[in-house]
Write a structure and sequence with these properties.
heterodimer, A: alpha/beta, five-stranded mixed β-sheet, B: 13 helices
């Protein structure tokens, strides 16, 4: 059930940012060519992010497709725009490239020192331009299971709460990154906060679990208190101790 | 269109074949055209329980492979009208069953019969999955003991996830619980799970409870489905189950221990 074909990941990569202060097609192209000729190998097929947040002559209509064409002719690969004002949104969308918001915290730019032609191209490694993508917890809708979770079955609510409207049989396993609710007997294994969320809880109408775990702290069936067995109960973490109390 | 009913359990030796024979015979006795198919390729038993082992010429695998027609392979039951048997191959293994082959045979049978009873092999492997894949309804045979109940739970999960109905997102397979070898006296002693314990764990509707009975073993050895033994509790209980399967409401019997009389206790009789 959890055999996904892919995994989404946050990643940091270095990319050249082309910060445009003024855009007049002819002089822009000439200046860019001059710059690139200083270190043609360094720029060959280099992806660039075009920052138009510091553009001063915004009153002019800007032909973005021409801008992209000029970059490509000089061997650059524009991957997107950054810091585009709202009036450019439509024009940027038409180019088909990505439009990144101007965010000061998440994108750190370091002034790019173009190596002098006398310097060996190996000094590329000194260039440090980082784009830091911040991962945020995204609230996903809870996973709702309406039929019994039978022995041998495993249900995982990734990044979400799990709600089972029936029972969880012995030999079945329910997992969630968030909370687990079982509106029936819980006889199998229940693991909440599997990604380490210590605030996650497990709620069930009839506590008879083989194993209860919150953020990796677990209790086995034999350690269940008799007063709680087959009662409606919840499990949560208090420090490192897993507490199970009646509801 | 025939209704395809799989008789399954997960665990072996709980009474799947006995139940297939009894329920199939019961349906035929009520006038429904019925065929029982043995899916236990390599360990064929149904023909013995039905008492037709000497009349098996062609089998299920022969039909799938196109070596025989259905007309050649189906065996007409001598005691009950409307009843046919399709035996499993004794010399092959479960790999001889292909999904396309099984589907072709079931489609063909669907036109001539009202009920197709698929007698599943034990386990959850290919043979069992093949028997349940095309089912409309399932009779889950369970003995009142923990390992049998857990295996039944497992097979219920497979019915929910690996059947054609589940894969195509159609209405789920209708599940029926049949508890066999039930002994109320041992339940009272706490040696056996009670009907309500089993119902509670499996959470599916109860089709019937077949009491533990010497008549079942006797019937198996004689090659007569136990449902034909109208004197035996087990035969009557199967009859009730068939009526419930057909939609009638019949009260459950044989759930309470009979007080043994003085002589019975002296003789130690159990049936």
């Amino acid at each position: 059930m959890s055999d996904a074909d892919f995994q989404l990941k946050g990643s940091t990569l270095t990319v050249v940012v082309l910060e445009i202060h003024r855009y007049e097609p002819d002089s822009f192209s000439a200046q860019l060519q001059q710059k690139i000729l200083k270190a043609p190998q360094f720029f060959a097929n280099s992806p660039v992010l075009i920052n138009i947040g510091k553009l001063t002559n915004t009153d002019l209509p800007i032909d973005f497709s021409l801008l992209i064409k000029q970059c490509r002719e000089l061997g650059l690969q524009p991957v997107g725009f950054k810091g585009g004002a709202e009036e450019f949104a439509g024009a940027i969308a038409e180019t088909g490239l990505a439009s990144l918001p101007e965010s000061s915290a998440s994108i750190k730019a370091v002034a790019l020192d173009i190596p002098e032609p006398t310097i060996q191209p190996e000094t590329e490694s000194q260039v440090e331009i980082k784009t830091i993508v911040q991962e945020k917890t995204v609230q996903r809708p809870s996973k709702v299971i309406t039929r019994p979770v039978r022995s041998g079955q495993q249900v995982y609510a990734e990044g979400a709460d799990l709600i089972v409207l029936s029972q969880v049989s012995e030999g079945a396993e329910v997992l969630a990154d968030g909370n687990i609710h079982v509106y029936g007997a819980l006889r199998g294994r229940a693991l909440a906060g599997v990604y380490g969320d210590t605030e996650a809880r497990i709620f069930c109408q009839q506590m008879d679990a083989e194993l209860i775990s919150v953020a990796g702290n677990f209790l086995l069936s034999e350690s269940l208190d008799d007063s709680i067995r087959k009662q409606s109960a919840q499990a949560y973490l208090e420090g490192d101790t897993l507490k199970i109390i009646p509801l | 269109m025939a209704k395809i009913i799989v008789v399954t359990s997960g665990k072996g030796g709980v009474g799947k074949t006995t139940t297939s024979a009894a329920i199939g015979t019961g349906l035929a006795m009520q006038g429904h055209r019925t065929i029982i198919i043995d899916f236990d390729v390599g360990l064929r038993n149904l023909d013995l329980i039905m008492g037709c082992e000497r009349r098996v010429v062609y089998d299920f695998v022969n039909v799938i492979n196109g070596e025989a027609t259905l007309g050649q392979a189906t065996i007409k039951d001598k005691r009950t009208d409307n009843l046919h048997i399709l035996a499993a191959s004794q010399t092959r293994d479960k790999d001889a069953l292909t999904q396309e082959g099984v589907q072709k045979v079931l489609n063909e049978l669907s036109e001539d019969y009202d009920f197709i009873i698929c007698d599943s092999p034990a386990g959850i492997e290919k043979g069992a999955q093949m028997a349940l894949y095309f089912a409309d309804e399932a009779i889950v045979v369970t003995n009142p003991e923990v390992s049998s109940v857990r295996d039944s739970d497992r097979i219920l999960g497979i019915l929910q996830s690996k059947s054609q109905r589940a894969e195509q997102g159609k209405d789920p397979i209708k599940e029926h619980l049949l508890i066999t070898r039930y002994n109320p006296a041992r339940v009272n002693e706490g040696e056996m799970l009670s009907v309500s314990d089993v119902e509670d764990i499996l959470a599916i509707p109860l089709l019937g409870v077949i009491p533990e009975s010497e008549a079942v073993l006797k019937a198996s050895n004689q090659g007569t489905p136990v449902i034909l033994d109208a004197q035996a509790n087990a035969g009557q209980a199967y009859n009730d189950a068939v009526e419930r399967l057909l939609g009638d409401e019949v009260e459950h019997r044989f759930l309470i221990a009979q007080k043994k009389g003085f002589f019975k206790r002296l003789l130690g009789a159990t049936a």
